[in-house]
Amino acid sequence: HPHCLSHSGGTGALAQWVLVELQGEVEPRQSGDLAGNLLGDLHYTCEGIPVLIVGHHILYGKVVQLEKPFAVLVKQRAAPQPSPTGPHGHYTVTALIKTKLLFKTRPKPIITHVPKKV
Amino acid sequence: AAMRSRAEVDATLQTAKLNPAELLPAVQCLTFGPQAGGGECCLLQLEPGLCAELEAGRSLVVRGEKDEHAVLCSKDKTYDMKIADTSNMLLFVPGCKTPEELNADPASCNIIHSQIAGFSKNYWELRRCRPKLKKLRKLLMEDPYEGPDGRKDQTSTFSKYTTEDLLSLIQASEEEILHQLQVIDACKIEGYWRILHFDYEMKLLNHVTQLIDSESWPLSKVPLCACLEELGSLEPREMIEHILLSYGRKYVDAGEIFFEMCEDKICRAIAQMLLQNAVKFNLSEFEEVWQQSVPEGITTRLDQLQGLALVDKSSRPETIFLLKVEDLPEDNQERFNSLFRIREKWTEVDITPYIQDLCAEKQTVGALLTKYARSSMLNGVKVYNSRRPIS
Please, what is the average pLDDT of chain B? Predict the structure, then answer.
């Protein structure tokens, strides 16, 4: 059966999200899954360069306008039967992504002995 | 856990030895949302035009049975879907602001909490492909229409397909499907798309050509009304009109509808009728019978039979046999394999009609031959054969 990808919003424009691209893996500091955990603080320099502080690392990146935008597909919960991973499922288009923050430079470690108390 | 405060952000900046004066005032604290790790979201990379279609509110459809590779269809195009792995982590963040957006809103607060909706290491990549339309003909050939008197027609609608049925079964866009239905001269009978049984089609064509002959109408000006009047007692009016539409070009002159008959198509149909009854024919005998079988005023030419029949110039006497391109496999490699099984070496002129339909957008026959065949010289002529042994 064909599966329709139409946008879930109904009326109004599709949401625009942003992609953040990081090298390597992101792991939670404590065991358990990532949900609820802070990834980090995202700043921009006055020149518009994104700076991401993740744990003890500083990542410098750049803002990239995507030549080929992405659609974000969300799987519908009411999937009738389990099927092998693949596009054979019910999806809706939730958002479009036209911009990404690409962090490719090696992270600079933040060297500190004692975290500063607030 | 309490949300991060501006004071904590500032402390981190200090530890990191970053100068706040060199940064925009607003920080975005990114946290993983509750669904983030669930794998509910995935990314689809959009080819040009698809983004605009989605923004215009149009849908994209994924089509394919479990045994088929899935394709994505817009209103008029078809794309293969493939997973592309990156070695990077792709996080999707709703509401994440770019520097421009932050600058445009100077009154905004200096701390924004944004949730990461999901992440992935891969995404779906699209590549425009030929619509997979061979199945369309196959489905309609399950129950070809034999006319109102055809025995089979009283039976169930099991092998009959509506437009919606076809849309759900064929891996192609709606426009590509509708266009192909026109190309194969399908017609809608009682809401179902049907292909005519070849014998019935020839019967209808014969009625029309005999009438044209007896009325001495020019082939370029066959009146619809008169045809319906004269033949309406023999066959359904819709079928008479259908055969005229299939074999002619409709136009209006002084308020009346006429058809300019397509001589080449008539010749092809009659050739098929003659050739389908034997494995092969003596070429010169065939050419004679063929010319005698077509309506008065039409001249037969072998080049009318491209993609329908093949001449064997190596046999003595020369022979001709039926070989329809639509009976050959749809997949490129399989098509070439079957062609090389039929004949070991092909000239470009002979093979072109049998591979033309494989050309992707902007691809040439030459490019296909370079990819799937190997060339050599035979008696001063360039020929193509298989790259590897064919079983």
Answer: 92
Cβ of B204: how many Cβ atoms within 10 Å?
Answer: 23
Pair B33, A17: CB distance under 8 Å: no
Same domain, yes or no, for B238 and B318?
no
Q: Return d(Cα B48, Cα A63) in angstroms, integer.
A: 21
Distance, in angstroms, between A38 CA and closest chain B CA? 4
Residue with tokens 């092969």: B280
What contacts B371, CB < 8 A, 6 or more positions away? none
Using an 8 Å CB-CB cutoff, list chain B residues near A115: 11, 15
Q: What is the number of CB-based contacts under 8 A between chain A and chain B?
A: 218
Supply the range of the domain harboring residue B203. 198-261
Domain residue extents for chain A: 15-25+39-78+85-108
Query: Does B80 contact chain A (CB < 8 Å)?
Result: no
Contacts of B90 in chain A (CB under 8 A): 19-21
Q: What is the pLDDT of residues B115-129, one digit of tens each?
A: 999 888 899 999 999
Complex ipTM more than 0.90, yes or no: no
The answer to whether residue B391 sits within a structural domain is: no
* CA atoms A61, A62, A66, A71: torsion sign: positive
Tell which CATH architecture fits domain A15-25+39-78+85-108: Sandwich (2.60)
**Which candidate from B11, B73, B98 shows the least CB-CB separation from A116?**
B11
B92 touches chain A (CB under 8 A): yes
